[in-house]
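Working notes for the structural subgroup meeting. M.R. asked for a predicted model of this chain before we commit to crystallization trials. I am recording the input and output together here so anyone reviewing the notebook later can reproduce the run.

Input as submitted:
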Amino acid sequence: MLKQLGIKEDTLQPQVLEGQMLKEYHHKIIKELYAKGVAKREIARTLGVDIKTVRRHLKQSGWQAYRRKQKEAPNLLQEEQLWLIKRMPEVNYNATILFRELKAKGYKGSYETVKVFTRPHRPSSLKGCVRYETAPAQQSQVDWGSAWVWLDDKQVKVHFFALVLGYSRRLYVKAFLDEKFANLVSGHEAAFQWFGGLTREILYDNAKTMITIHNPQTGELLLNSAFKDFTEHYGFEARFCRPYRPQTKGKIESGVKYVKRNFLPGRRFKNLTHLNCEIEKWIVEVADERLHGTTHQRPSQRFCEEKLLLINRIQPYYVYIPAIQRKVSQDSMVSFAGNRYSVPWLYVGHCVDLRISQNQLLISTQGKIIAMHEMVQGKHQVSICQQHYAGLLHRGHSKQQKLPQHDSYWQTEVEVETRDLAIYDSICLMSSHSLLKH
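Returned structure, recorded in token form:
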């Protein structure tokens, strides 16, 4: 029917999710169809709307956006309306504060009534922002993201360190089990090595591993002492966005979403090491080669213009992590963070040192590493290396028993008397003569 009336049917479907534009478009179509003699019920069926909607649009002289009717102020607030209107801006339109102050003035109504009265007076929040582009090698942005990932047959919450270069939009991502300072440093250094350098400044949010105080009103900013030492070690300037304003570092916010939506869905990994290997492969084959929506260039091509600050002569930053001591149990295991890890059986009963590095548990004694395990996920899990028990089951037969040489009950030589056979013949003759006499 729409074709007969000169209206393209496929022009209706794309409008389904367009809010006010959908309603305005419907208004024009309804008017046009009705003017051509199409019945109201047929119009409603064709456009997939209620017949009441068709009737309402036909009554209107022009299109009007739908607005919910505001309820009149409840009678309980009649006497306090003027005070409320003056007081609301002073308390940032906080209905909880207003309700508390009204109760002190003898108000008998409910909190919901105050909230409904306050809502239409609140100013609409403006979400616009200005895009900020940086010169080559000027700025990069860092952020953490987290997601539940299948590691072997278990879902584990994995934290992703992400760094994006502001100019080229090249991205680096590495997975960790937490966002502690040692992993923050490890993520930075891995990114610096990946890109072969770093930018003059790096933009962050307000994580506690980096800052102690950030007051946007006074401008006071106090860096965590360890993180400040790290920035001075590599010679870059750390900048921080305003609290609760992630748009300031929109490039990395988009990068974290890109990882979650383009790389993780439907994937399963053997362990954290396998996950990081697959991330690097995805970065090279997909992320670096995509046509970026803002720059309209491939990050790998645009990277040639970055000219990053080289790090060839900078030594890796050392993060001191105090060792944790454990005693090796009789079954050759040590406990750590609710899980158990095997140790070579020769160290049963010994005290050993435990340290975490790159998501691995390093077990050492007297400065010598005797065992390495990838950190186990969850609680009450066991990580066993069969080599740690090599030789344990046969150690009872490992030493050959020597023949006793000093047993007083054992005669080393037994002497046998040698006699002439003629003696036995004479004994036989004597026995025969004795029998004849009897």
